[in-house]
Amino acid sequence: MPWFHIFNILFLVNFQYGNGQRFVGKSCKVLYDISPISVICDVTKGDQWSLDDFRELMNDTKKSYLGDGQFTLEIECHGGGNISIRQPIKLPEMTSLTVRNCYITDYYDYDFSQEVLSIESVLQNLKFTNCKIVYRRSDYVKHIQTNFEKLLAYEKCQISNTLRTFIFHNSSFDDYYPGRQLTPKELKLELDYENELRFLRKCAHNNLTYVEMSSLSPFSAEVMINDLLQNGIFNSLNVINLTNNGLERVPSSLFTDSMYQTINKLKKIDLSRNKIEDISFLYKYYDFDGILNVDLTRNKITELSNLDTNKLKSFSRLRNEVNIRENPLICTCYQRLLYEFIAEINDKNWEQYTYLKSMQCLDQESERNLKNISDFSNEGMCKKSDSLVCVSEGIFKKYKYSFLGFSLVFLVIVFTCLLLKYKYRIKQLYRVKTAVQCHCPDNPKYYDAFISYSSSDERWVYDVLCTRLKSLLPDVNLCLHHKDFIPGACIAENIINSVENSRYTLLILSLNFIESEWCQMEFQKAFHQTLKHRRHLLVLLIEDIDFSLLDYDLRFFLQTYTYLKYSDKLFWQKLAGTLQMSRDEDKTSHSNNQVFNQLLPPDYDSCV
């Protein structure tokens, strides 16, 4: 070994044996009196810790100070410490990596050098807690250009197939956008890469037993778990933990045939501490023989309807269990099957649901008094409701004519006030509904839909909307800014052409959209098309918005026409069905163009 290498090792490794530990560099110490040996690195503000540098250091010192055995690595940052962890995450004989409170700068930088690829990974446990991971899109595209095939194989699997536990807790992704925009060629390459990624074979994660994605944003949690489950086969996975993510609905990859077929040893799905309001998502594949526990404690379930109770009973056969403790249940008359189910728990041997007898709920009448659910019977609840109805009917009969006269006068006054207040809006609505509609076939449209969105929502549009639509309608043709705007043409001209050459405009409505001047222009053009052809603009509301923040035309559209909410359980079916119906109608109408044109009057010029 050259003398300068020996000097570097002596400088970086302090020969301290007290208390069963040695120090490596200025930030890491080795605890060698435990098995496996543990390396702990403390990174303070101003330090620059790098996995690549640590790998080089361990290559020179591992055998001397760690022997040939395996070791674990823990990295903890203090005061905003930055670290560099490039993928693939590999160190010789490292079985566990834990990272806490760190700002990770190079996670989406990749090292596909022969040195790294030749390392046989034995990593079994990977955990990120309270971390922020930087994502630089331009760097990512460069890696696609230089490592297309290697990156495809690596990203399809996402995590090492040697992993047993994967934990991503209270962490986030920091999207970093440099000043330079991607060129059309780079954007096309990125889209081609994402298309190729979807068609690769699924990865076999034979050792993974525990997955946790907790205390994340709802979007991050949903995207991460869907990407992992849809791309893998899991022969040993027991637990999926999605607690405390603010989820209002269950991710689409859960409780499907595919989930049960690829995770045949699943025992628990933890959905506690979210914002789920019902259990309508429950479904068990007929060929799944395992016992599955679904934890829904501390959500927002207020009622178990008769339909939900039937789903609960169907799901719970063969000892499966749904835990709904600590939910704000209200006892109502409309839960007859729930009360019957509780009454027969002992008779039918539903031992896993004995806890329901001691659960409390709010009295539907006062909504303040907590009582045990078992104290309510459907018969008693409905008698209370019936008695209230009878009293109301008696009062109504006695004062029937006075009540009707007063109601009529009140309605006339209200109607007159509303007519005066919304006179202009009523006129506009009348013009929309009575406008002359063209019954000749439209000009052929090149695109199925033009997608109008704010650049701040770009990731959702690419990763969620386009991906899902492509899976539902494989040959759908979408018009997107980055690939279909004509280079050199002014933005306004590109917007007009895109709207007019598309059957629909899909407007992705969010707070970011409201603040964008170009988005407002796209809406005005699409709204004009809607006034002419009635069915052109489709608004997709992807987050809750205060309608008072909208301009008059957009607010008028949302109050006049139907829009789709992303939180709607049938969101994807409605959207795909609308686009497919439009394509079918277009094919039918254009196949009859010749016949139709012969029926037009000779002085008919064009559509109005």
Number of helices: 21
**What Rg, in angstroms, do the CA atoms define?**
31 Å
Computed structural class? alpha/beta
Which stretches are poorly predicted, pLDDT < 50 over at least 5 residues? 1-18, 386-394, 431-442, 589-608
Strands across the major sheet, in which order?
Answer: 1-2-3-4-6-8-10-12-15-17-18-19-20
Cα shape: globular
**What oligomeric state best describes the polypeptide chains here?**
single chain
Mean pLDDT: 78
Indicate the proportion of strand residues: 15-25%
| Distance linking N and C termini | 86 Å
Largest sheet: 13 strands, mixed
Quick one: how many beta strands?
A: 28
Helix content: 40-55%
Characterise the protein shown here.
The protein has 608 residues and is an alpha/beta fold. Helix content is 40%, strand content 19%. Among the domains are: 1-136 and 160-180, no CATH class; 378-429, no CATH class; 447-587, Rossmann fold. A 13-stranded mixed β-sheet has the order 1-2-3-4-6-8-10-12-15-17-18-19-20. The radius of gyration is 31 Å and the shape is globular.
List keywords for this structure.
13-stranded mixed beta sheet, 608 residues, five-stranded parallel beta sheet, Rossmann fold, alpha/beta, single chain
